[in-house]
Amino acid sequence: MTVRRDFKEPARCRPDLVIGRDELYTAAREQLTRGGSVLLHGPAGIGKSTVLRALAADYGDAARTVLRCSATESESHLPFLALADLFGLVLDEISDKLPAAQRTALESALTGRGESTLQRDGLALRLAVLSALRALAAAGPVLLVADDLQWLDSASAELLGFAARRLGDTPVQLLCAVRTEGQEYDRHLRASPPDTLAVRLNPLSRAQVSALLDHRGYTDLPRSTMREIHRTSGGNPLFALELGRALGESTTPPRPGEPLPVPTSLRALVLSRLDMLSPEARRTLLVASAGARPTLALLHAAGRENAEAETARAAELGLLATEPEGPAVRFAHPLISAALYAEAPAQERRAAHAALSTAASDPIERARNLALATTGTDPEVAARLAEAAALSRDRGAPSVAASLGLLAARHTPPDGTPAPDRHRLQAAEDAITAGEVDLARDIAREVLTRATVPADRIRAWEVVIEAAGQALGDVDAVFPQALADAGDDPRLLALVRYHLAWRKLIVEGDFSEARQEAANAAELAARGGDRRTELMALSFQSSTETLMGHPNAPATIKRAMTEPQDPYVACHHNGVGAARFRWLMMSDQLAEARSTITALLREVRRRGMVESEVHFQRFLAETELRSGHCGRALDLARESLRLARDSGIGLGASAMLASLAEASGGDVDRALALAREAAGRAGEDGDQMYLSRALAALGHAQLVAGDAAGAVGSLRRVRELEAGLRITDPARGRWQGDLAEALVLVGEPGEAQDVIDVTREHALRLDRESVLAVLDRSEAMVRAALGDHEAALSRLTSVQDRLAKLGYGLEEARAAFALARLRTLRPGTGPGPTSYDEAARLFRRCRALPWLRQVDEAAAEGAAAQRLVVVRQQPPSDVLEGLAAMERQVAALVMEGATNREIAARLFISVKTVEATLTRVYRKLGIRSRVDIVRLAAGRHAK
Length: 943
Description:
It is built from 49 helices and five strands. Helix 7 links the parallel strand 3 and strand 4 (about 170-180). One of its GO terms (biological process) is regulation of DNA-templated transcription.
């Protein structure tokens, strides 16, 4: 009999669960699968019930009997209520299996007819619950699901705890959830079976909150608003959903400086204790909620004379944090501050801000509070806000600068100087810097509805284009309008032409046209005296020429680096520093490239340039990956991807690099998924340039995963794409060696050699030493596949040394691995137990775990490899003389008893190629199977 009481989770719960809960869900599911119990714990609204319902629905089918109870605070005083929920429907099944005294006590507790109590029937009840669970388990596994343990009536909690501690090997598992603050779950854990796994549900990240709201249909919220929802909710999914719902129902979104609309449900949840404070204490807390970084000193300066006593009382009530925070005043949860502020009348809010506008020591805080205390336009307030925005910009807080700029626009009279829209455009540019592209685009679009001055319109169009990111095809209609607004002004035309160069590259995939457009933009900017745009255009031109293998690339980089320089361009991800970094990487100057990108990353973080930080973090990860520091590269790539998902910037590029890092130092399945995600995003954006990079990452991951045919398919597409893009520098994507190796594995050494020859020509012309070394490694594998093992061994030994000197640790390790595999086929030597030690050492030094696993698998086949070498040392039988070289090798290995997989590994070919070769061998020798080949071998030995 299976009892399931409303366990099937609502359809909408499971997608929510996946968002931010996949790892803990997997851990809990595995614990249940092992036969253990699980205790979920965390604060209210954190998602415990959702996870509990999903686990019960997912794992419940494995149990014969599923019992459930869900307690509530209003019913926690009713004795044995949880017990009745659990056993009410199975009492008839188990009652006759209990001793009479236990049966009577249990029936009395469940029905209430006998007025059973723990004091009177304590031992009988305890034993009855234990016996009931054992009786149910005798017929099959039992899963007991209990939600909100904190509200369990004390009698039921005592009985269940007694039984849980004594179940032993009885197949009864508990799946429970309890509301806790901090780590206060020990009491509940002590009342659980000894093998219980305690799983704490932590707050969601900003990206996870965004994904949750997207799933629930709140898809039009700007990222700046999403950031505020995450901050206010503290990552609590229930609070975030309620805030999102309130915003969705609101007809007008909050303006900068205004609080989020906090729904009544959340206000009641967090403000129920406010009634226990005096009116003066509430005003003190309101001032604290209005301040950015409230302290006791600030509250005193704002006129709150009894701040110590009033905040102490608020801490006693759980409204403020109780742990030592020095002079800081911190709310127990951000939502308390938000709800308190939203609850206060507008007049009281303005009074709090007015007090803080003179009390705050920081000029930015004084200006912000003055603005929020002032109604209507006021030129003096607007001027102070503009100064505060500039100061925030200098401090590396562009998001704050954008907010202050919008406040300045609100307080600027329509005929003010500068005009309100000038403040808005500056705010939009600050928002772009901060990575808040949705906010920036909305501001720019609003300005375009009324702006008539060409310079203002071009600034707005530039923001719209920048906000599109890689999806420039989405804003195709902008460019004709921007060109019309620019007229014949060289400064304005230079800006538009610079962005047109990017469009030529990304949308049309035409490097030649993009290079020419950038050169035109640089010339126009120089004529118009716009040094910043000139430098940006020269940086773009030099990067394009580098990728094309154009001979002018070094000269253009030199022009871009001449004085005077612009500090913004110097550290921008499309600026001079980034162009120089790319050139260093492609020229094998890894150490200088690392120091260059490290300095750039430090500077953009200081300036708060989020988009540049995303890209530079990825560049640094790529540098570490090339150097063979796979663990470090993986950490950096994952952080870059997290930042990209959080900001919505550079997602495709970050996923691409993360795929390469995962394939080299992490999880290969994850690498495949990320590469496909990157390719999908590039396809959606119409970005041909990054599509080729994404497909190269996919091909690499497929090769590492053992899917040589898949790798060939992906990398052939890369070759076609880059030929169409006129990318000739092989150091750009470095996929050619992977393609050649994969082609060898699928039995196409001729095509592999063609790839090597064409790539070598470009690498020699551009002096790409590391590319040449990798090509030599690939060519050694071609030679081995064709039977020329001596030449292959000699070349691989040289390649390993060259890559080591260049600092390409991972490629060096791959060469050592190829050398170890090839030595198993060399006449006169056997693999021995330590043949792969050098490759394993190098991969271990790189922390290249996927490759290290391949070495371990190859070493595990050492005994079989030894037998294969012995066979190759023996003179071939006359019967094999009529076979081709590859056919003779395959036949000889079969004679020794090697499997098709072992043969493929030793000869650097695919299993499919082995099978096709054997088919030809059968036909030429007039036999039908590999058994006949073994018989031939036996006949040879008999002679």
